[in-house]
């Protein structure tokens, strides 16, 4: 039997990190720890070492079709633990500090025409909240779930997804925080036999936002697509750190994240910064795997920095395909020249190029109102840059 060991020490592979539901089982991370080396620990407001501001109850509201069941259940409930335990100290802190879990269940064979909306609202400045949310979809069901974050404060949570056999789940995570918010969240996903997951993350708000999806295939036939968009200004740090764990044969995954940054050298705020780390693990028994991951970043101004780190860990050669790509750079000058040669002003041409850059991801979001709102946010960011 393979034994896992604690974070920040040598381990077997990216999928075998130490995990626990108890925060005391984790050491306090330091700036040299690999999984924390990009974010400034000082900006996490004590979430990583237990020295956070006074705690208030998490404000979690669920709105959905009548077929959906919403329960407040004990953290010891087997359904809550089905996606596994936290793999870092902040996620474990969120679990340990939660009074209970919000369990959202979609019944078997249900075909939900309307989305389920889960709204998490910050409790305000100088207040810390923790949350645990679990979404489970029954066999052969179909559902769209929107998790929307808003308000201000300091928040850490675990959002777990259990995608039932033969079911189809669209999960949309919208981090629309006020600019003074700090949010660190682990998203653990189990994809069962012949199930389909579409997981979308949008991060435009917040001072520091770090979201870490972890997808594990439980049986053959699983299909997962993970997409994300993010836009950072001065004073913002956005990190997306994900793992797709191909532990069984004949599953497919595709990852596509796109981000943009803009800064101002004269600003007193920290530079705009983003970090994307994409880990894909293909275990020895995962024959027939087909996977690809892509991350693209546009640095729109000086005084901004993006890190892009794709990783493939392959333990078998019997696969359908595997690859990755990542870029950090300015937008395409040839495209700009083409548009300007047709009489379009440089400012308008730049906006058109950037909108087109994001649309490849945004067009995949199934909720029209959310898609339109995110397109409007991109336009708003570009107007801010123009001013």
TrEMBL record:
InterPro entries: Fe-S_cluster_assembly_SufBD, SUF_FeS_clus_asmbl_SufBD_core, SUF_FeS_clus_asmbl_SufBD_sf, SUF_FeS_clus_asmbl_SufD
Family: Belongs to the iron-sulfur cluster assembly SufBD family.
Record protein name field: Fe-S cluster assembly protein SufD
Residue ranges of every copy of the SUF system FeS cluster assembly SufBD core domain listed in the record: 124-357
Xref: Pfam families: SUFBD_core
GO biological processes: iron-sulfur cluster assembly
SUPFAM superfamilies: Stabilizer of iron transporter SufD
Signal sequence annotation: none
């Amino acid at each position: 039997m393979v034994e896992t060991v604690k974070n920040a020490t040598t381990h077997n592979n990216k999928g075998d990190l130490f995990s626990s539901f108890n925060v005391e089982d984790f050491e306090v991370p330091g700036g040299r720890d690999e999984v924390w080396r990009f974010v400034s620990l000082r900006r996490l407001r004590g979430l990583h070492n237990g020295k956070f501001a006074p705690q208030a109850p998490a404000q979690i509201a669920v709105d959905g079709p009548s077929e959906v069941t919403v329960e407040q259940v004990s953290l010891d409930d087997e359904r809550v633990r089905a996606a596994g335990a936290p793999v870092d100290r902040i996620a474990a802190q969120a679990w340990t500090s939660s009074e209970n879990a919000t369990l959202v269940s979609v019944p078997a064979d249900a075909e939900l025409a309307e989305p389920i909306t889960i709204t998490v609202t910050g409790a305000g400045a100088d207040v810390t909240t923790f949350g645990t949310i679990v979404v489970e979809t029954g066999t052969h069901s179909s559902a769209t779930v929107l998790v929307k974050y808003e308000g201000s404060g300091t928040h850490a949570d675990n959002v777990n997804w259990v995608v039932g056999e033969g079911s189809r789940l669209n999960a949309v995570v919208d981090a629309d925080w006020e600019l003074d918010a700090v949010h660190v969240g682990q998203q653990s996903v189990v994809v069962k036999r012949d199930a389909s997951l579409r997981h979308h993350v949008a991060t435009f708000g917040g001072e520091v936002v770090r979201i870490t999806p972890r997808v594990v295939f439980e049986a053959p036939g699983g299909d997962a697509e993970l997409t994300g968009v993010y836009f950072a200004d001065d004073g913002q740090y956005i990190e997306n750190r994900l793992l797709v764990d191909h532990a069984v044969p004949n599953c497919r995954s595709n990852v596509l994240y796109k981000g943009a940054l803009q800064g101002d050298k004269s600003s007193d705020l920290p530079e705009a910064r983003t970090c994307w780390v994409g880990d894909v693990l293909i275990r020895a028994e995962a024959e027939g795997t087909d996977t690809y991951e892509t991350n693209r970043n546009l640095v729109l101004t000086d005084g901004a920095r993006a890190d892009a780190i794709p990783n493939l860990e392959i333990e078998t050669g019997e696969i359908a395909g595997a690859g990755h790509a990542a870029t950090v750079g300015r937008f395409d000058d040839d495209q700009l020249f083409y548009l300007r040669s047709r009489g379009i002003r440089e400012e308008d041409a730049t906006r058109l190029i950037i909108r087109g850059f994001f649309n490849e991801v945004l067009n995949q979001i199934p909720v029209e109102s959310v898609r339109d709102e995110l397109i409007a946010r991109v336009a708003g960011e570009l107007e801010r840059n123009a001013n």
